[in-house]
Amino acid sequence: MFPLERGGGDAALVDAGRGRPQTVAVPIHSSLLKQGENKIVLTAFGGSWLLYDAVALRRVAEKGASIQAEAKPTIFFVKREGQLKQVVRLRVLGLPPKQPVKLTIRAGSHLPR
User: Do 93 and 67 meet the contact criterion of CB atoms below 8 Å apart?
Assistant: First the structure.
């Protein structure tokens, strides 16, 4: 069981913004997962209900595993130092959780400042 803090009360049922954000991280060893369908079941053992907006499984890379990066341009631009710069959405997989990393991005022969 993973106890939650007390929520925002019944008002959150009609206005989710009145809920209280919480994050619960549950380590699941890969040996517990099987090929094909795996189910995640949320059960309230105390109180009466809970709200959630996402349930995700994230693979934590083992030491020495490769890092994968994906960059996708967006339709947005920002002005920096008098020049328009395109906003790029960057997704990086394989980084260890909650550890600071230094990330350098190179576009062709250009390094960002």
Answer: yes
To which residue do tokens 């009145």 refer?
18
Cα 32 to Cα 38: distance, rounded to the nearest angstrom: 9
In which band, very low, low, confident or very high, does the pLDDT at 14 lie, cut at 50, 70 and 90? confident
Which among 108, 78, 104, 109 is positioned nearest to 90, based on CA atoms?
104
The β-bridge partners of 88 are 73
Tokens of 13: 């049922």
Put simply, whether the predicted model's pTM sits higher than 0.70 gets the answer no
**Is residue 69 a contact partner of residue 89, using CB atoms and an 8 Å limit?**
no
37's tokens: 């369908």
Q: How far apart are CA 61 and CA 9, in angstroms?
A: 38
Strands 68-80 and 83-93 turn out to be antiparallel
Taking CA atoms, 106 is separated from 100, 109, 110, in Å, by 20, 7, 6
CA–CA gap between residue 86 and residue 72 (Å, rounded): 11
